[in-house]
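Query structure, 196 tokens:
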């Protein structure tokens, strides 16, 4: 099991390079604020239907498990899960330069690839209305993000009004320079996304 801050520490030590993350469980929110490649234990291996393999598991007790706020970032071969119990927005991976942490200073993010990653069970399963659960969120202020060979499953919430619902992949933006552009989504498996 990785100690708190292990992946973040490695990101801080490299410049434009690769961080290889060994199999194990990392109880930390991962903030990516510079160009880097993160390679989990299953890098290069299709996540769709992958079982029984040693995984690099990112499992923080946080609303956003992985936040990307830099150009030229690759995330490859991870498992992401959380048991976040607070009623707030939740995301496995959030890609945007506009979500309240210091990033590049408001420029559009580009050159981002998220692949071969399993995202599942992001809350305690007892969510109520008013906030959403998303596997991957892209935008606003992105231009050129690729999502490929990922599996997103078991996102569940309770919302009697059905005003909010869990979403496997969410692409969003606003006019006037806040758009999410040129997002390439292919070969992903999204299932068991439920609102009771």
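Result returned for the query:
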């Amino acid at each position: 099991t990785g100690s708190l801050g292990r992946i973040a520490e490695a990101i801080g030590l490299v410049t434009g390079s690769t961080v290889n993350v060994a199999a194990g469980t990392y109880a930390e929110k991962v903030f990516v604020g510079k160009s880097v490649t993160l390679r989990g234990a299953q890098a290069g291996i299709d996540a769709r239907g992958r079982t029984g393999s040693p995984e690099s598991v990112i499992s923080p007790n946080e609303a956003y498990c992985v936040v990307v706020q830099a150009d030229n970032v690759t995330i490859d071969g991870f498992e992401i899960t959380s048991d976040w119990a607070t009623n707030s927005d939740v995301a496995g991976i959030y890609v945007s330069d506009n979500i309240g942490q210091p990033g590049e200073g408001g420029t559009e993010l580009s050159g981002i690839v998220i692949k071969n990653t399993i995202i599942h069970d992001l809350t305690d399963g007892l969510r109520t209305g008013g906030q959403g659960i998303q596997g991957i969120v892209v935008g606003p202020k992105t231009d050129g993000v690729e999502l490929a060979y990922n599996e997103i499953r078991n996102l569940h919430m309770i919302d009697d009004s059905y005003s909010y619902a869990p979403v496997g992949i969410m692409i969003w933006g606003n006019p006037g320079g806040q758009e999410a552009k040129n997002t390439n989504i292919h070969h992903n498996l999204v299932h068991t996304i439920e609102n009771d």
